[in-house]
């Protein structure tokens, strides 16, 4: 745009900053943020600050992101607090996660995702007493986590799956494919991340089985069974993909030589050759 003389506007910089976030370009993010102000006289809106916070959170610069939030000229919204909370969960910084969750819950106590991310962060840290307290808080406020649901379209028909679903007409074939996937994943060296599986499931084998039945894995199994080799598999999920399913889907894209595109409630994930386009998980 600069080369051909088209003047970028505030929306242009939201797109550029968002792109910097997804590929981890911290220095470029700051460069374009400052360019917007100093060269084009554009006053940063909350969306621009949100992008800058996202850039820093994805890179693990949580203290820096916290400083940006505290210095913003406007009141942070729930998206910004959720970004900091998610970054703290991803980089296992409980202190900053609690800080973000406190402000998020004060600002938007009805935001179920905040409680879920906080609970997952505590679970990863092994702080199960705090996990129970978060769930009790949700219960008292009449909130509950929606069950995970993944959808895949095939020949004009949308097929929906929830965790552990056995209602589909192809259930036998789907679970047979899941068993095959499990064996191939083991051979590829995958070790299930059971750190966030529910407290009341004590046995490690039961925790692994719980993960294997997540809705997106059922949808992937259906896709592998019903689409031609080499065809992309496209899935929609109502919740955020968990870290273990993210790792598994990366491996499956390589094992079966498939592109797998998952649109969760956060963003698109494009899995190909054992890699993913996002920087959500490391």
From TrEMBL:
Keywords: Repeat. Belongs to the PPR family. PCMP-H subfamily. The keyword Repeat applies. This is DYW domain-containing protein. Residues 189-282 form the DYW domain. Pfam families: DYW_deaminase (PF14432), E_motif (PF20431), Eplus_motif (PF20430), PPR (PF01535). One of its GO terms (biological process) is RNA modification. The keyword Transcription regulation does not apply. InterPro entries: DYW_dom, E2_motif, E_motif, PPR_At4g14850-like_plant, PPR_rpt, TPR-like_helical_dom_sf. The lineage of its organism: Eukaryota, Viridiplantae, Streptophyta, Embryophyta, Tracheophyta. One of its GO terms (molecular function) is RNA binding.
């Amino acid at each position: 745009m600069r080369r051909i003389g088209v003047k970028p506007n505030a929306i242009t910089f939201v797109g550029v900053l968002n792109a910097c976030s997804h590929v981890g370009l911290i220095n470029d993010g700051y460069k374009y943020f400052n360019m917007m102000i100093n060269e084009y006289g554009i006053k940063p809106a909350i969306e621009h600050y949100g992008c800058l916070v996202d850039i820093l959170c994805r890179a693990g610069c949580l203290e820096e992101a916290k400083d940006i939030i505290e210095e913003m000229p406007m009141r942070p919204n729930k998206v910004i607090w959720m970004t900091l909370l998610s970054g703290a969960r991803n980089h296992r910084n409980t202190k900053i996660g609690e800080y973000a969750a406190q402000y998020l819950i004060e600002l938007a106590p009805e935001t179920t995702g905040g409680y879920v991310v906080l609970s997952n962060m505590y679970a990863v840290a092994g702080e199960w007493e705090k996990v129970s307290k978060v769930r009790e808080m949700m219960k008292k406020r009449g909130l509950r986590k929606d069950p995970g649901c993944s959808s895949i379209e095939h020949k004009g028909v949308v097929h929906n799956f929830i965790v552990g679903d056995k209602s589909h007409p192809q259930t036998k074939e789907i679970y047979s494919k899941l068993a095959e996937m499990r064996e191939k994943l083991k051979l590829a060296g995958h070790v299930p991340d059971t750190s966030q599986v529910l407290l009341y499931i004590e046995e490690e084998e039961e925790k692994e089985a719980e993960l294997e039945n997540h809705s997106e894995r059922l949808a992937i199994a259906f896709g592998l069974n019903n689409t031609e080799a080499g065809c992309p598999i496209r899935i929609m999920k109502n919740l955020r993909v968990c870290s273990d399913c993210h790792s598994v889907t990366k491996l499956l894209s390589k094992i079966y030589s498939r592109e797998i595109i998952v649109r969760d409630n956060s963003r698109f994930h494009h899995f190909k050759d054992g890699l993913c386009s996002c920087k959500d998980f490391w």
